[in-house]
């Protein structure tokens, strides 16, 4: 006789505590078999097999699996296409239902629709729950029910709707598991990936950083940001825990968490932003797209120390300070007139905390073509940004110690580049009006 059980499918929620979908699965009345799928349709697109994100997932899952050992069960890990894995699992077990938390990215929605339809034909319910955000999809809208496309009114409504139950931790009874022999999860080598320099640690919120977040977050040399981006991306920390903490200690950090939700709902309502400008008129910009200059930007050889330091930090570590991200993005789009999509794709390849909605939203913001875009005529001056946020060059010296040898002359003059960008943007808007 096949075992009757329900499945909990881990995805962007790699933790046992405060996990909505897992809570519901464990309360189903059936033993729960936990599983994770290393999706080949995602992994096969990663050309560089030294990828800290895959390593992070593998280590986080190992941590979850270790915690499950005391419950006499094990996390079942698979490598393949999700639909094919579910064909295998439903053949092996008498699956009463599948539980998981929602993922709002377009490809994930298509994947889940495929799995849902397959399970429907087998009369197996597919239950999904909100866990990645406090408010999802259409929970924060204008009076007429349409989505907000500007952050400030969205944030105001978000805060007005927030109640304690929205950020209360989900209690999870970790007892009703399907008993299976404990086993290790799939290794990086089995996945075709290499071990990186990353060491997973259970994420913690640093009170000292949060208390002074508003004072020091813009100064990259101080390293006074949370570094929780990757934990929120893969769900090794609960968004409810973060919001509860931010409400108590720092409104500025809370605003950053609301930005995350703002961009998530923009991606859901306007999936076209994945590869097109939110504001269609900016598709008329005559990008220069000079491949040599793009390569210099990628390598951190633009001749602007803060830009080059940021790119070198990214290339070496998979991380870049948020203030510097804005500077290097503005530089690419405005100074070099290179399409924001080139920069977004490079960040998607390199950032350990890469998140589609946030990466896309922030790049469109920098390019001036997004939903809540900075005006196109706002062009960061890298020198002025350095004087304001790294006046002693501590950040620059850390990531680009040879900057003062003048090995790399400036790739373009700031004043010239600024005027060129303004002309290009104005011309694009004029062409749109004529059409």
From TrEMBL:
<dbReference type="GO" id="GO:0003677">
    <property type="term" value="F:DNA binding"/>
</dbReference>
<feature type="binding site">
    <location>
        <begin position="353"/>
        <end position="355"/>
    </location>
    <ligand>
        <name>FAD</name>
    </ligand>
</feature>
<comment type="similarity">
    <text>Belongs to the DNA photolyase family.</text>
</comment>
<dbReference type="InterPro" id="IPR036134">
    <property type="entry name" value="Crypto/Photolyase_FAD-like_sf"/>
</dbReference>
<feature type="site" description="Electron transfer via tryptophanyl radical">
    <location>
        <position position="287"/>
    </location>
</feature>
<feature type="binding site">
    <location>
        <begin position="256"/>
        <end position="263"/>
    </location>
    <ligand>
        <name>FAD</name>
    </ligand>
</feature>
<protein>
    <submittedName>
        <fullName>Deoxyribodipyrimidine photo-lyase</fullName>
    </submittedName>
</protein>
<feature type="domain" description="Photolyase/cryptochrome alpha/beta">
    <location>
        <begin position="4"/>
        <end position="134"/>
    </location>
</feature>
<dbReference type="InterPro" id="IPR006050">
    <property type="entry name" value="DNA_photolyase_N"/>
</dbReference>
<dbReference type="InterPro" id="IPR018394">
    <property type="entry name" value="DNA_photolyase_1_CS_C"/>
</dbReference>
<dbReference type="InterPro" id="IPR014729">
    <property type="entry name" value="Rossmann-like_a/b/a_fold"/>
</dbReference>
<dbReference type="Pfam" id="PF03441">
    <property type="entry name" value="FAD_binding_7"/>
</dbReference>
<dbReference type="Pfam" id="PF00875">
    <property type="entry name" value="DNA_photolyase"/>
</dbReference>
<feature type="binding site">
    <location>
        <position position="253"/>
    </location>
    <ligand>
        <name>FAD</name>
    </ligand>
</feature>
<dbReference type="GO" id="GO:0003904">
    <property type="term" value="F:deoxyribodipyrimidine photo-lyase activity"/>
</dbReference>
<dbReference type="GO" id="GO:0009416">
    <property type="term" value="P:response to light stimulus"/>
</dbReference>
<dbReference type="InterPro" id="IPR002081">
    <property type="entry name" value="Cryptochrome/DNA_photolyase_1"/>
</dbReference>
<keyword id="KW-0285">Flavoprotein</keyword>
<keyword id="KW-0456">Lyase</keyword>
<feature type="site" description="Electron transfer via tryptophanyl radical">
    <location>
        <position position="340"/>
    </location>
</feature>
<dbReference type="GO" id="GO:0006950">
    <property type="term" value="P:response to stress"/>
</dbReference>
<keyword id="KW-0157">Chromophore</keyword>
<dbReference type="InterPro" id="IPR005101">
    <property type="entry name" value="Cryptochr/Photolyase_FAD-bd"/>
</dbReference>
<feature type="site" description="Electron transfer via tryptophanyl radical">
    <location>
        <position position="363"/>
    </location>
</feature>
<keyword id="KW-0274">FAD</keyword>
<feature type="binding site">
    <location>
        <position position="213"/>
    </location>
    <ligand>
        <name>FAD</name>
    </ligand>
</feature>
<dbReference type="GO" id="GO:0006139">
    <property type="term" value="P:nucleobase-containing compound metabolic process"/>
</dbReference>
<dbReference type="InterPro" id="IPR036155">
    <property type="entry name" value="Crypto/Photolyase_N_sf"/>
</dbReference>
<dbReference type="GO" id="GO:0071949">
    <property type="term" value="F:FAD binding"/>
</dbReference>
